[in-house]
Structures are given as structure tokens and as C-alpha cells.
């Protein structure tokens, strides 16, 4: 299995999904060798064997042709032997020399790549280096299938397949259309399409994503299978609620980028605060739109009711939910969305966009179009004001999420493995 990140070193939902998935697979007797560009030594290996790509020495070879002289000695007998003439007069030892060309490989140099394991300016270079490492790692291990997560690892998965002939599964957690709208990065799109074309199966995290894969990338429908994400059990019992404000708290948690719709959250917050100032809004996350969002909050005059926490992970996420009275995910395009499940798991009612994959599996959540700021504000106000509504969503939503276990998702993934083996 090739992934770009693994807890506790994550930047979003991808690493969290990989963690839950591998634990679920372990419960079904699947052994996972999980390769990451850079391991830090504190990753949980309860369900996997972690391989650090930064530790692998890669040899670069060159095709060579070497000529050498080959000496042949053979007995030659003339075919036109005449009667009454002794055969020895027609036989002689013949020596012949000829040049023979031998093809082989010569090692030029060996090296280890020092991966950052992050998403920096040299990302494409690291993606290529990771693929070279994959071609070295794959022949060294015994395994049945290759499973590559998101476009960053697709070249590595393809390299491993070419080196071993093993079947390849690529997991589409988010497409370039989700991340960039219609202004796609052509290089990323090309890698995504290449990965899915080379794969034996494509797993998508929702039917929404499956349709994009088929319509936008031209992948054959019978090759694409949906397996919805899930959520790990909560450690809420060990989390202390340190809420030090009397106001209600509404939380947005995710990357502050176009895809997640942070501007719609801010505009809805402004409308809610026109009706009720007894509310605080929290935007937890980081991203390229952060500065723009801070400026917008200031221009609307709601900075005294708005908080930016930066990126949260691990227990800090659970602590944030323990202080929240409502969770909002107004994503423009969300392949799935694990954070609403984490919120419900913590007994927090959620409002999600209809343009999200998680909307396919959640019944007890309020759903709005991401662009409908008035509807979003109305739903936030309703959850904060009507306790009966809140209790219904807390109780029924928790039951729903309790059934969305990684063990179930992993069972469906294992069936895909078995079908290819």
C-alpha cells in the first residue's frame, strides 16, 4: 500500500482514512506493508508494517553493450567426397574468430532520496522519486496486490506493477475537479487519469466521485467501485470539555481552500449574528484562503465573534468538537468528508452541503446547497435555538455513525483484493 501520509503526521482526511482502513483490513486478516515517503518513527504500527521510502537505496543502471572475441574450432568435411579417395584428404580442422555482442546493465550510482513527505514546491519531483523507490521496493517483498492512495502515489503504484506484474488498485479520495473546480492542474489531471487507466480496479469514496471519474476521466464504469469511508470509534470519554465561553459555538473544520467553501460559512455567520449575537464561530484549519477569510471577517465587523485556530489534528479535533454546539461543512465539492462523522460521533449536530459524498450515507444531518447562504444561516439558527431538534440529530445521528465502521468498509475492500487475486 502506497500512501503520502500516516498518523500522527497528517494534513487532512487522507491520512486519517488510511489509518482507519488499515486497522479494518487487519481485523479481516489482511497484512499490509504501508510505504510512506518519510516516516518519523512515532507512527502507529498496530495494523501495518511501515516502510520508510527515505531509507531505501535506489540504484540507477545503464544498458551496456560489450563486444568480445569468441573462438570456434570445428571439423569440416567436404560433402563432395569422390570414390576411391581417402576421407582424411577432405577433412581439416578449421578455426574461426568472430565478435559477439553481449547486452547487460551497469550500475552508474546508488542513492537514497530524502523525502519531506509534505506538499511543497518540489512536490512533482518527490512524486517521481517516490515512483523510483517503489520500483526498487516491490520486487523485494512478497504480496498479492498493490493499493495506491490518491494521485501522489499513482506513479509509484504503476512502477510497482510494472516491476512485479501484481494487480493494481488506485483509490480516488479526491479528484482535481474537487480541489480546483474547473481550473484543473493539467499535470495532476494527467497523473490521475494515467493511474486509473493502468489500474485493474479504481475505488472511489462516493458515488459522486465515481460519476466524476467516469464522466471527466473516461474510465470504464465496470472498473470503478464505490466504497464509502467510515470513522474510528471516539475517545470522547477521555476528552475534557474546556469551553470557557457562555455563547453557543459553531465550528468549521477543514482546509481553508476553495473546495471546502469557507467563504459561505463566513457569510452565513454574518447573517446569524444579525439575529443573535450570543454565538461564536470557529474556523479550524489552514490553507491558501486563510488570509482572505480573516480580512473578510474583519470587513464584516464580526471579528469579536469569530476565531481562527489554525490546523487541528488528533485529540485537538475531539476537544474542538466537545466545545461545539453545531458543525458546518459547506463544501463546494466534497468527495466524501470524514469530519461530519467525527462531529456526530462527538454528539454534535451537523449541517452539510448536498454536494458532498457523505450526504449519500447520512440521513440525520441537515443538508443545504453550498451556495444557499440564507438556508445555511436558517439551519444554523434552528440547531442553536431548538433543543428538541438538536437532541433528535444527536441521538439518531450517533446511531447512524456507529454503523459506519472501517471494519465494514475494509471488508468490501478485501473482496476487491480477492477478486483480483
Written account of the structure:
By secondary structure, the chain is an alpha/beta fold. It folds into three domains: 13-58 and 114-226, Rossmann fold (3-Layer(aba) Sandwich), CATH 3.40.50; 59-108, no CATH class; 236-404, Glycogen Phosphorylase B (Rossmann fold). The protein is 38% helix and 23% strand. It has 13 helices and 14 strands. The strands form four sheets. Strands 11-10-9-12-13-14 form a six-stranded parallel beta sheet, sandwiched between helices. Strands 5-6-7-8 form a four-stranded parallel beta sheet, with helices on both faces. Strands 1-2 form a two-stranded parallel ribbon. Helix 6 links the parallel strand 7 and strand 8. Helix 3 runs parallel beside helix 5 and helix 7 (262-275) packs parallel to helix 8 (290-300). The longest helix is centred in the last third of the chain and has 16 residues, at 387-402. The protein starts with 12 loop residues before the first helix and ends with a helix. The model is unreliable at 80-87 (pLDDT under 50).
Work out the count of structural domains.
3
Beta-strand proportion:
15-25%
Distance between the termini: 15 Å
* Number of distinct beta strands: 14
Biggest sheet overview:
6 strands, parallel
Mean pLDDT: 88
Estimate the global geometry from the Cα principal axes. globular
Fourth-tier CATH superfamily name of the largest domain: Glycogen Phosphorylase B
Number of helical runs?
13
Roughly how many Å is the radius of gyration?
A: 30 Å
- The CATH architecture category of the largest domain equals 3-Layer(aba) Sandwich
Low-confidence stretches: 80-87
Strands side by side in the biggest sheet = 11-10-9-12-13-14
CATH classification class of the largest domain: Alpha Beta
Q: Please give the share of residues in helix.
A: 25-40%
Amino acid at each position: 500500500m502506497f500512501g503520502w501520509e500516516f498518523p500522527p503526521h497528517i494534513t487532512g482526511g487522507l491520512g486519517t482514512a488510511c489509518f482507519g482502513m488499515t486497522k479494518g483490513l487487519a481485523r479481516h486478516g489482511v497484512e499490509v506493508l504501508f510505504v510512506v515517503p518519510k516516516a518519523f518513527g512515532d507512527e502507529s504500527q498496530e495494523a501495518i508494517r511501515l516502510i520508510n521510502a527515505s531509507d531505501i537505496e535506489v540504484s540507477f543502471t545503464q544498458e551496456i553493450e560489450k563486444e568480445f572475441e569468441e573462438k570456434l574450432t570445428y571439423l569440416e568435411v567436404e560433402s563432395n567426397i569422390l570414390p576411391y579417395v581417402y576421407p582424411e584428404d577432405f577433412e581439416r580442422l578449421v578455426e574461426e574468430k568472430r565478435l559477439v555482442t553481449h547486452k547487460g546493465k551497469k550500475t552508474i550510482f546508488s542513492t537514497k532520496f530524502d523525502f519531506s513527505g509534505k506538499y511543497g514546491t518540489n512536490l512533482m519531483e518527490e512524486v517521481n522519486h517516490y515512483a523510483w523507490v517503489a520500483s526498487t521496493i516491490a520486487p523485494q517483498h512478497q504480496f498479492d496486490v498493490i493499493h495506491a492512495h490518491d494521485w501522489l502515489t499513482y506513479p509509484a503504484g504503476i512502477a510497482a506493477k510494472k516491476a512485479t506484474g501484481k494487480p493494481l488498485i488506485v483509490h480516488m479520495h479526491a479528484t482535481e475537479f474537487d480541489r480546483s473546480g474547473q481550473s484543473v492542474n493539467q499535470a495532476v489531471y494527467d497523473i490521475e487519469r494515467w493511474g486509473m487507466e493502468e489500474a485493474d480496479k479504481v475505488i472511489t469514496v462516493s458515488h459522486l466521485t465515481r460519476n466524476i471519474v467516469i464522466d471527466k476521466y473516461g474510465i470504464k464504469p465496470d472498473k470503478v467501485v464505490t466504497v464509502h469511508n467510515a470513522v474510528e470509534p471516539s475517545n470522547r470519554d477521555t476528552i475534557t470539555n474546556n469551553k470557557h465561553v457562555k455563547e453557543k459555538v459553531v465550528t468549521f473544520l477543514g482546509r481553508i481552500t476553495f473546495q471546502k467553501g469557507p467563504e459561505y460559512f463566513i457569510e452565513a455567520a454574518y447573517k446569524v449574528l444579525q439575529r443573535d449575537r450570543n454565538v461564536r464561530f470557529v474556523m479550524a484549519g489552514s490553507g491558501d484562503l486563510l488570509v482572505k477569510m480573516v480580512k473578510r471577517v474583519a470587513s464584516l465587523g464580526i471579528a469579536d465573534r469569530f476565531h481562527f485556530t489554525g490546523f487541528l489534528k488528533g485529540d485537538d479535533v475531539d476537544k474542538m468538537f466537545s466545545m461545539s454546539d453545531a458543525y458546518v461543512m459547506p463544501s463546494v465539492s466534497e468527495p466524501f468528508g470524514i469530519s461530519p462523522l467525527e462531529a456526530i460521533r462527538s454528539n454534535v449536530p451537523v449541517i452539510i452541503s448536498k454536494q458532498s459524498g457523505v450526504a449519500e450515507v447520512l440521513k440525520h444531518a441537515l443538508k443545504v446547497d453550498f451556495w444557499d447562504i440564507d438556508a445555511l444561516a436558517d439551519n444554523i439558527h434552528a440547531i442553536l435555538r431548538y433543543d428538541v431538534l438538536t437532541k433528535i440529530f444527536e441521538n439518531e445521528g450517533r446511531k447512524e455513525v456507529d454503523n459506519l465502521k472501517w471494519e465494514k468498509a475494509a471488508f468490501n475492500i478485501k473482496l476487491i483484493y480477492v477478486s483480483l487475486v
